[in-house]
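Homework help board

Subject: predicted structure for assignment chain

Our instructor gave us this sequence and asked us to write out the predicted structure in token form, then describe one feature. I got the tokens but I'm not sure how to describe them. Can anyone check?
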Amino acid sequence: EGPPGLIGTADSNGNVNVLASASSIQPGLAIDGDGAAYFNVYNSGITKVTLDGTTTVVTGTKGIRSTDIAIDSMGALYYASDVYYASDASRINPIIRKIAGGKTSTVVGGADENSLATEAPLTVPTGIGVLPGGDLVVTEGQVVGSDSKIRRIAPNGQWRLLSSAAVNKLYPVGPVVVQGGNIHALMRDDYQHWSIVRFNADD
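My token output:
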């Protein structure tokens, strides 16, 4: 246990190495198959901490405003951002990016709702998860809004809706949890009723 409001590591003697303060930590936390943790520090980038306390900045890109982070079974890292700024400081709409093999690519985000996921617009991505077969599950939208939805996105960019507030009046309001072939999402309705909804990945 370290000082409040900080993220860091501690050895068996209680010595604490502070990695980031609460004011600079962005939403999102992921654990890979080796137990290493990944989180986003606004002023340094997405950071990896192994079980022995070794720290590595994975992105090297400062100023990422993340909303969630996920890792697939092959070790590829995904992060969702409600606002992204390019190297020339121009603003880009919400996107989801993938980091694998030292390369970064955009997998979701664009302008045309009827296009592939790389070209389809996001509202506000609030959660991402990865299914065993490599498909992404993305929750997006506002707390209350007809644009709130849950999408399943295949590696080739094809996507389909799992849930749409415009149809069922349920709004995803937080991270999505993928466990095996099941997808769990925290949702609410217009009357402030909260529920955890489970989707079967085979549906």
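Reply (TA_rk): Your tokens look well-formed. For the description, you could write something like this. The chain is about 0% helix and 50% strand. That's the kind of observation they're looking for.
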